[in-house]
Design brief:
Blueprint: H1 2-8, E1 12-16, H2 18-24, E2 32-37, H3 40-50, E3 54-58, E4 63-67, E5 73-78, E6 80-83, E7 92-95, H4 98-103, E8 113-115, E9 124-125, H5 130-135, E10 138-139, H6 146-149, H7 152-164, E11 167-168, H8 170-181, H9 190-201, H10 207-215, H11 218-222, H12 230-249, H13 257-266, H14 271-280, H15 285-308, H16 313-320, H17 325-334, H18 338-349, H19 360-365, H20 373-386, H21 393-400
Parallel strand pairs: 2-5, 10-11
Antiparallel strand pairs: 1-2, 1-8, 3-4, 4-5, 6-7, 8-9
Helix pairs in contact: 1-3, 7-9, 7-10, 9-13, 12-13, 12-17, 13-15, 13-17, 14-15, 15-17, 16-20, 17-18
The structure holds adenosine-5'-triphosphate.
Adenosine-5'-triphosphate (ATP) is lined by residues 17-18, 105-106, 110, 150, 152-153.
Length: 401
């Protein structure tokens, strides 16, 4: 029916970009991007109307988002070349052809399109040899100024290279090196750079990409004290192990993977530099707190645990319960001694869930007058439970009595 809407509205309609790329790579992709030669919004309205779907149109941009009955989202854009009235202005949009639209994209592998009009349904359109590059597993930009135009593409190149097991083409590598040498990062906002770093750190295995960023000296370009060292790389691999382990233990308890890795990237920096980097990259206040102050507290705690272990569970609990999950996973990675790693894993998987079975209500029934003493009693019960001394509510009541 999408082809029918295309024909009815007199548009040429194509599915483009990541969806087509992933189709050829046999990879799952649920983001459908449609480009329309003609009036994209008119087409989107017609299509949404034909199947009772919801639509949000942005007439200024000629774009629309269609939400299908099953919640599936389709992005529709009018084929366009953008030009900017002034550097800070929103793009003015003019109608143009598919090829010009695709020319603005990052890599040839993202420029493939499939036509959806009924007569041409399924025709693959390949203006920039994307198919060949997919076959050759090569990432290539479309024109030589690509990285100067948009330095975030350097991060994207590194990310796709590792995600798809591709190689960045020789000329493309040279252009990346040139762009970095020219200092394109001075013109890239911290927030955009961070967006790309987070995307990399959220990939299944970000370590090869970070290594590659290190080879390009890109982290050092963001701030000299972030230069990648062997030690940091080893720690990143430990972090990956710790994260994978943690996710096996507690799949329902979300942990921001990127934050753990980012703490590792900041680990060689002194406090002042780490703070500076967080500010440059526009981290939120709580993220900076975690990456700088909390991480330093964590380092001290690791040292202390290495001296103190083995410990009673209740004491281990008191040392660790102050830390957020991300910091604890970081600690599991950063601790050199196995015993410390194990203790943190034990806390994460078991101890942190231990709470008394009895409540204030039970204490009242036992005739204890309500007041600050309740908290103290419940904490004592919790400690006793942590240390394996109490196994049922009856035992807890007997303990209190
Ligand atoms: P991911 O799976 O990480 O979402 P993707 O390529 O499938 O990657 P997006 O990152 O959402 O999806 O990008 C959608 C399309 O927009 C891409 O296919 C790409 O062609 C284009 N694109 C995204 N970012 C840029 C950029 N910085 N420069 C040029 N084109 C871009």
């Amino acid at each position: 029916s999408i082809g029918k809407s295309a024909d009815e509205t007199g548009c040429h309609v194509f599915v483009v970009g990541g969806f087509v790329r992933d189709l050829l790579l046999y990879r799952k992709n649920e983001d459908i991007d449609i480009v329309v030669e003609g009036d994209g919004i008119h087409f989107a309205k017609n299509f949404a109307g034909s199947r009772d779907a919801r639509i949000h149109a942005y007439s200024k941009f000629g774009t629309a988002v269609i939400t299908l009955e099953d919640g599936f989202k389709v992005d529709v854009a009018t084929a366009r070349t953008e030009y900017y009235a002034s550097p800070a202005a929103l793009p003015e949009v003019e109608k143009s052809s598919l090829k010009a639209d695709l020319y603005r994209r990052d890599f040839t592998i993202n420029t493939l399109a499939i036509q959806l009009n009924e007569k041409y349904y399924g025709t693959l359109i390949d203006h920039f040899s994307g198919q060949k590059d997919i076959k050759d597993k090569t990432l290539r930009i479309i024109h030589n100024l690509s990285f100067v135009e948009d330095p975030t593409r350097i991060f994207r190149a590194v990310r796709f290279e590792s995600r798809f097991g591709f190689t960045i083409g020789k000329l493309t590598v040279r252009l990346i090196e040139n762009a970095i040498r020219m200092g394109v990062f001075k013109r890239l906002s911290g927030a955009r750079a961070m967006g790309e770093i987070v995307s990399i750190l959220e990939e299944n295995d970000p370590v090869p990409s970070i290594r590659r960023l290190g080879e390009f000296r890109l982290l050092a370009a963001l701030h000299p004290s972030m230069a990648l060292t062997e030690k940091t790389t080893a720690l990143l691999m430990e972090a990956r192990k710790a994260l994978d382990g943690y996710e096996l233990l507690a799949e329902d308890l979300r942990c921001h993977r990127w934050l753990v890795y980012f703490m590792v990237l900041l680990s060689p920096c002194n406090t002042a530099d780490a703070k500076k980097i967080c500010r440059i990259l526009r981290l939120a206040g709580w993220q900076e707190e975690l990456c700088v102050k909390e991480r330093e507290r964590a380092e001290l705690c690791i040292k202390r645990l290495a001296r103190e272990l083995p410990l009673d569970n209740s004491i281990l609990y008191s040392r660790l319960h102050v830390f957020k999950t991300e910091v604890l996973v970081y600690m599991m990675a950063a601790a050199e001694r196995k015993q410390v790693k194990k203790a943190i894993a034990h806390y994460l998987s078991k101890l942190r869930f231990v709470t008394p079975l009895i409540q204030g209500r039970d204490l009242k029934e036992m005739g204890i007058p309500p007041g600050p003493a309740y908290r103290k009693i419940l904490l004592q019960v919790q400690d006793a439970r942590l240390n394996g001394m109490l196994h049922s509510k009856e035992e807890e009541m007997a303990f209190v009595a």
